[in-house]
């Protein structure tokens, strides 16, 4: 590889590194620990509320060198997505701590069914396994 091509490859690598570092710095700013466990809030009656949130984020980036000459250079891009969702409050009062979830109780029948689905699936699997076990035992006795 010629010296010019090595210099071009190093330059493009640095451009990609710069792009990645810039994106990660932005995500770090958003994903600060104070975003997950918020600043305590003091009330007039001596109760301390501490917000707790759930953070989801996605990150992607890429780039490369384009063209036949070094002057054509580097092209790159990236994207990030952040979702912050309140989960609960820690309530501290008189030395006692309590967790108060933010999620509302299911309202409709569909909401209740969706919440119950994992438990129902487990019960159905257990029922089918018991039936299979009973059938196996019956076959052994014959």
Helix and strand element order: HHEEEEH
| Number of discrete domains | 2
Q: How are strands sequenced across the largest beta sheet?
A: 1-2-3-4
Number of strands: 4
N- to C-terminal separation?
Answer: 79 Å
Question: How large a portion of the residues is in β-strands, by DSSP E?
Answer: 25-35%
Protein structure class: alpha+beta
Descriptive account of the structure:
Strands 1-2-3-4 form a 4-stranded antiparallel sheet. It is of the alpha+beta class and about 140 residues long. It has helices spanning about 5-30, 35, 110-140, and strands at about 40, 50-65, 75-95, 95-100. The model is unreliable at about 1-10 (pLDDT under 50). It has 3 helices and 4 strands; from the N terminus they run ααββββα. Helices cover about 45% and strands about 30% of the residues. The protein has 2 domains: about 5-105, no CATH class; about 105-140. A hairpin with a 2-residue loop joins β3 (about 75-95) and β4 (about 95-100).
Task: Write a compact overview of the structure shown.
With 142 residues, this protein is of the alpha+beta class. 46% of the residues lie in helices and 32% in strands. The longest helix is centred in the last third of the chain and has 33 residues.
Summarize the topology.
Layout: H1 3-30, H2 33-36, E1 41-42, E2 48-65, E3 74-93, E4 96-101, H3 109-141
Characteristic terms for this protein:
alpha+beta; 2 domains; four-stranded antiparallel β-sheet; about 45% helix; disordered N terminus
């Amino acid at each position: 590889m010629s010296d010019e091509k090595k210099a071009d490859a190093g330059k493009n690598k640095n451009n990609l590194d710069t792009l990645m570092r810039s994106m990660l710095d932005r995500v770090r700013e958003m994903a600060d620990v104070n975003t997950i466990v918020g600043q305590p809030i003091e009330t007039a009656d001596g109760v301390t509320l501490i917000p707790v949130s759930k953070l989801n984020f996605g990150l992607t980036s890429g780039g490369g060198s384009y063209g036949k000459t070094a002057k054509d250079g580097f092209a790159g891009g990236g994207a990030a997505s952040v979702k912050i969702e309140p989960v609960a409050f820690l309530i501290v009062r008189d030395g006692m701590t309590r967790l108060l979830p933010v999620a509302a109780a299911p309202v409709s029948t569909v909401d209740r069914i969706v919440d119950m689905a994992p438990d129902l699936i487990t019960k159905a699997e257990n029922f089918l396994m018991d039936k299979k076990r009973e059938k196996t035992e019956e076959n052994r006795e014959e």
